[in-house]
Amino acid sequence: MRQLTNEIIRNVFQEEANRITRFFRAQKRRLRSWLIFIDLVFLLIIFLNLETIAPYLYFHRQVTINLIFFFWIIALVVIPIIWPYKRGDIFTENFKHGLDPRIWQYEGDWKVELSEDGKSVLTVTDSNLGGLALPCLSWTDYEIRFDMRILNKNAGWIIRASGLYDYVLQKIDQDEIVSFYRIIGALPEIGRMKHGQTIELDTWYSLIIFARGEWLSVYLMKEGKENLIFQDRALGDKPPLTIGIKEDIGKGFLSSSQQLVAPAFRTGSFGFRAYGDEKAQFRNITAYRL
């Protein structure tokens, strides 16, 4: 039973229509690096001119105290704005140290390999239940950024997983994005749509995924541009789903239907999945709690 539309719902969030807002959202991550760089340059200038600066500071102690107090007040106001994240609000993974069982819970064939450029990548295949990042289980709204490439058929990612039996799954191939709910043992499809982008096998692409309230948004980065390829109310409360069941009774199959109550998917981590001979690779994973 499909619960989603077959097209992108646009103009929901401001950054979709405002290029400046999108630019500043991306630059917000870099402001911290710029702050550290400016501080290091400032300290280097002071060190190189210490013989000139030290006598001035000594003979103008009141001015020095006032400057310290001024910059201290500015720091209290500015730093929380440009450096808003605290410990536990950012998750990064580059797989340099392999798959840490304290960080990743997974089922199936997950392994870390070296790509052609010598960097560590996660390869996922034959993983029915998939896997998830344990440090982010209590997260609600978040942004995920990662690189992925499809080696066979499609690549899949998991959103708002409370465990390996309850999550929202999306799979992308060269033509479509297909969405599913993992509800205990069942995996009913809830929607599919054309993404309208050229995706080649064995080629790296960057994805940005937002889980915000009941909205799930997926952007594909190509040539430095964010392309919205999915946006719908895939999260939050949903009506029961009706799924078809076939039971082998020896002389044939008995068909029936069953209603499943979907979880609200309000809280949970993220991860990846590739089932059977589906195969994909992932790298450069960064997630921010919103």
Structure description:
It is a single chain. The protein has 290 residues and is of the alpha+beta class. It has two domains: 16-82, no CATH class; 89-289, Jelly Rolls. Helix content is 23%, strand content 44%. It has helices spanning 14-17, 19-48, 50-59, 61-82, and strands at residues 90-93, 104-106, 109-114, 120-133, 142-152, 155-163, 166-172, 176-183, 189-194, 205-212, 215-222, 225-232, 241-248, 253-260, 269-289. Strands 1, 2, 3, 4, 5, 6, 7, 8, 9, 10, 11, 12 and 15 form a 13-stranded antiparallel sheet that branches. A hairpin with a 5-residue loop joins β3 (109-114) and β4 (120-133). The chain starts with 13 loop residues before the first helix and ends with a strand. The model has no long low-confidence stretch (mean pLDDT 85).
